[in-house]
Amino acid sequence: MPPRFDGEALTLELAVADLLESSLLRSLGFANRGGYERLWLGQAIHSRYQEKQLADDSTYRREVVVRATFEQRGWQVTVQGRIDGLRREPDGTLVVEEIKSVRRGGALPPAVREIYQRQALLYAWMLARSPEIPDIAEAPAVRAELVLIAIGSDEVEREELPLRLDALEAAVRRRINALLRAYEAEARRREERRRAAERLEFPYRELRPGQELILAAVETAVANREHLLLQATTGIGKTVAALYPALRYCLAHDKRLFVLTAKTMQQEMATAVLQLLNQDAAFRSLRLRAKAKMCANDQVICHEEYCRFAKDYALKLQTSGVVADIYQRHAAIEPDDVFRAARAAEVCPFEVSLELAARAEVTVCDYNYAFDPYVSLPDFSPDQDLSDAVLVIDEVHNLVERGRGYYSPELSAGAARAAAAAFGHLGEPIYRRLQALCLKLAAIVEDTVHDCLDDLAGGAGGGAGSEPPVEDGGGAFQGRDRAVEAPLPEELFWELRPELDAAFVDYLEHQRDHRSFRAEDPFVELYFDFLRFLNGLAAADAAFSQFVEICRGDCRVRVLCKDPSRFLGAVINRAHAAIGLSATLSPPEFYTGLLGFAAGRTAFVEIPNPFPAGNRRVVIDATVATAYRQRPGNYEPIAERLSAFAEAVPGNCLALFPSYAFLAEVAGRLRLRTKRLFVQRQADSDKEREALLAILRAAVLGDVLLAAVAGGAFAEGVDYPGDMLRAVAVIGPCLPALTLERQLLKDYYQERFERGFEYAFAVPGMTRVVQAAGRLIRSPHDTGIIALFDQRFLESPYRKHLPADWLAEQGAAGLVGDPAGAAAEFFRVLSRRS
Q1: Which of 271, 282, 520, 786 is the most buried (most CB within 10 A)?
Q2: 3-state SS assignment for residue 586
Q3: What is the pLDDT of residue 360?
Q4: Would the CA dihedral through 447, 450, 456, 457 be positive or negative?
């Protein structure tokens, strides 16, 4: 936690870390920052040592909170910390232990040892000033020890540290003077930002229709410390209309702005808007890139002992000045800027981006950095105060599924066996040990799955997983694949952890000694999957289900989070304000409930569609059916009517399907005369997807029909400006597949909301439909036609999730027609108007 200054009350709250050079101290915890490295074994090593000390010494205490309070320059200063270990010797002396894990046989770098020593001495100094802790007032003396524990062994080195309280006191006061000077400098910068907020202007000469309502709603929310869920049609300019008032408020009131997105393209859009708003470089914005894409050397484990970009990180960070240099050079800090500068200084680019995130006024990043407990920024950890943060969450409807995924871990027997196979040809003892452990874990998973499925088969009823279910979205479960809800034998997994912990440490040491690290290590990935799975087991309550499955021959045990609201809300409701934006937030109670927005603090605002109704036509083809059991008989009619529709459109068309399998069946039957057909493939890379978009932009190639999947890269979060797209066809309501997981969600939603099928199937399916259609009309000048292929669009509950501005006076029934004929008529009328 950074220092907390209250300039009005003249109070300053510090952690022990603040009394050290911050960049140096951060480097000591390098392996604990970002991704799965938060699960680094240092914690387990500390805990094992502390447990032994507790058993051997009745005076021993661990994780002791200590405070010291004093005055300096008129400020009331409080320093707080947590002592790793505290014991009393026979003569009454209190001994402070600072526990650190170090590599076996490796010399601790002098600079690192010095920081560790200073940390221990500061705790001892605080303890000497803190009579509030029981028994301390009577202690005749205090001293400090540095306790170094060799990773993978019981070797312990104790270093007694000379304690000179007067010298420490003087050093602490010098450090606090430096912090106060920094605070005063920051106060001057805050005043500059306030003046910048007064100068800030909307970046466009005119507001689009509807944007004035967005501006007013966001201004009200941030001013009153409220949350806002805002629904507005795609293309209205939600991003700029939300960021402008949010940014102005943050600059004026010393708040930080986090722009959270689900896709890279949305980050690019937000960054472009921020650049327009920052013409005089009054603030710094930073865009974060995924850790894997910022790694300079493809190492899996981030630790000073294993990666040259992590080694001596703090020293190189300090001597190179790379963070300050990037901060000064760029008002809009892009990942490529960070990567180039950090690599040149031989420091970890991802860690440098985190350093910059602590300084930037605006951070643009993926949802993960706020909500995923394994990769979230330090600012979003559970013990951090977010009252100085405003969150703008773009396409917030995506956060429900993403949030469930963060807390739904699984273990795969196939992954465990693959990890074992990777060591099968290696004869050294460490590899045989890893192979045996991987196979042991695989056997536990497989036995659990088969036992649960055998119990199901021997029971009286079928249950949710007794037979292959019928899916709308396509086959997650095919042939002999099965799944069943069942309590998992948690003790078997917990009993395996000590063996895996010890083997993991020894494996890392072996890799370092032999320089044998690899970019993708199956055992490392399996180990961290295992730890995450144990955490999922520990967190489970009524909002979770446990189940087993066989999917494509692989046995898996899973923990399903059915309701992420408790976890997402813990972040959202700590913020000063959270603004959720989307074109599809209906019904609002679904999103409010499952995202964890506090009911008494959240407003829902829907902006009417401002675009001319005559610019768009919606038609429903009720002659075809797309439900799973009806598909085989409808492939040919759908292909025939979709082909005719595409041929009637003078321009590019986008056709979206519920699944790749359905897409393949229809695409193979399409008969196009004037359109070139391009089909999205499940294995397409980002580069291949970008190439398809480039084809749509290249008019010289003629008209194109792009067939893709709903909810994918071509259906959400992508712009098709101007005449790049003239028609969208959506094949069916695009419901999720009817898996056991979806059935469990349905049951949960029925119990909580009494709308099980609607919330588990209709809402996510129709959200995909409306998002897909939103690719078409992006401005008041865009024109085009939307064709919905399926009779179910006329039925409840799908009908009620069609946007109101789509419907004719007769309701959904008024939209029924032949898509090809409707397209021909629509574009004929348009040509007359022009």
Answers
A1: 786
A2: coil
A3: 93
A4: negative
The single-letter DSSP state of residue 808 is B
How many angstroms separate the CA atoms of 229 and 221, rounded?
10
Nearest to 665 by CA among 694, 645, 637: 637
Are the C-beta atoms of residues 537 and 353 closer than 8 Å to each other? no
The CA–CA distances, whole Å, from 337 to 173, 296, 324, 330, 331 equal: 37, 13, 13, 8, 11
DSSP-derived secondary structure for 126-165: HHHT-TTSTTTTT-S-EEEEEEEEETTS--EEEEEE---H
Please provide the size of the chain in residues.
834
Which H or E run includes 828? Answer: helix 819-833
Segment 186-231, tens digit of pLDDT: 888 888 889 989 999 999 989 988 999 999 999 999 999 999 999 9
How far, rounded to the nearest angstrom, does the alpha carbon of residue 573 sit from its chain's CA centroid? 17
Using alpha carbons only, give the angle 468, 471, 476 rounded to the nearest 5 degrees: 65
Angle between helix 490-514 and 522-539 (nearest 10): 150
C-alpha distances out from residue 760 to 231, 233, 735, 740, Å: 21, 23, 9, 12
Per-residue model confidence (pLDDT) at position 557: 96
The span from the CA of 274 to the CA of 268, in Å, is: 10
C-alpha 425/C-alpha 722 separation (Å) is 58
Of residues 556, 591, 615, the one with CA closest to residue 827: 615
Compute how many other C-beta atoms are within 10 angstroms of the C-beta atom of residue 78.
Answer: 14
How far is the C-alpha of 161 from the C-alpha of 94, rounded, in Å?
Answer: 13
Pairing of strands 227-231, 156-161: unpaired
Spatial CB neighbours of 458, under 8 Å, sequence gap ≥ 6? none
Of 811, 655, 645, 782, residue with least CA distance to 719: 782
Compute the distance between CA of residue 614 and CA of residue 397 in angstroms, rounded to an integer: 28
Peptide bond into 797 cis (omega under 30): yes
Tokens of 612: 């001319």
**519 pLDDT tier (thresholds 50, 70, 90):** low
* For range 296-323, the mean pLDDT: 76
Least confident of 179-188, 216-225, 626-635, 695-704: 695-704
> Residue 240 in contact with residue 203, Cβ under 8 Å?
yes
What stretch of H or E contains 412? strand 410-412
Whether the CB-CB separation of 524 and 303 falls below 8 Å is answered with no
pTM: 0.83
How many whole angstroms separate alpha carbon 776 and alpha carbon 303? Answer: 48
Q: 10 Å Cβ neighbour count for 604?
A: 19
Listed residue (786, 369, 770) closest to 582, CA to CA: 770
Cα separation, 312 vs 17, in Å, equals 18
723 CB-contact burial (10 Å; exposed 0-12 / middle 13-18 / buried 19+): middle
Which among 239, 229, 303, 307 has a CA at the least distance from the CA of 267? 239
- The reply to whether omega before 632 is within 30° of 0 (cis) is no
Task: In whole angstroms, give the CA distance from residue 441 to residue 617.
Answer: 57
Q: Is the dihedral of CA 608, 610, 612, 616 positive or negative?
A: negative
List strands edge to edge, sheet with 676-679.
616-621, 784-789, 727-731, 653-657, 704-709, 676-679
For residues 439 and 503, the answer to whether their CB atoms sit within 8 Å is: no
CA distance 62 to 269: 49
* pLDDT tens digits, one per residue of 26-76: 444 454 443 334 344 566 677 778 888 999 999 999 999 998 999 999 999
What's the CA gap between 580 and 62, in Å, rounded? 42
How far apart are the C-alpha atoms of 689 and 658, rounded to whole Å? 18
